[in-house]
Design goal:
Mean pLDDT: 82
Low-confidence stretches: 1-23
Strand order of the largest sheet: 1-2-5-4-3
Helix content: 25-40%
Structural class: alpha+beta
Shape: globular
Largest sheet: 5 strands, antiparallel
């Protein structure tokens, strides 16, 4: 018998004996609890976890809402807290520049990159309010 066939036969035997069948004590080891299926976190869930902003991830991980602090809204997120997920999501420089140059007069702004749509407003009293949506997951 060729060496490869022996290796495959040996591995098959090891897998069958080690993973199932009669465990030697008369119990069926294949009847163990089914393996839990774990789904990888979305990129917003991963960004939220990395930045400590899990409570801002919404819609089953397809969006993240970042309500910034302003002169009259001290309960919002600091600029540092808002920047963390943007860095994690590798927001292009041109989008950051667009955000940085938004004035209160400009109203709702939007931009897209890598399957992400960003919408934001800025006012000194309210800060920057930013919503990111992964439109690849929402279609």
């Amino acid at each position: 018998m060729p060496r490869a066939t022996l290796l495959i036969a040996g591995l098959t035997t090891v897998l069958l004996v080690g993973c199932g069948g009669d465990g030697g004590d008369g119990t069926d080891t294949m009847a163990a609890e089914p393996a839990a299926t774990t789904q990888a976190p979305t990129r917003f869930e991963a960004a939220g976890e990395t930045c400590g902003l899990e409570e801002h991830v919404r819609d089953g991980g397809t969006s993240i809402i970042l309500d910034g602090e302003g002169d009259e809204d001290e309960d919002g997120l600091s600029i540092g807290d808002q920047v963390c997920p943007l860095v994690y999501l590798e927001v292009p420089d041109h989008v950051i520049e667009h955000m940085d140059n938004t004035r209160a007069l400009d109203g709702m702004q939007d931009d897209t990159w890598d399957g992400i749509e960003a919408r934001w407003t800025y006012h000194p009293d309210q800060g920057m309010n930013l919503t990111l949506v992964d439109f690849e997951l929402t279609e």
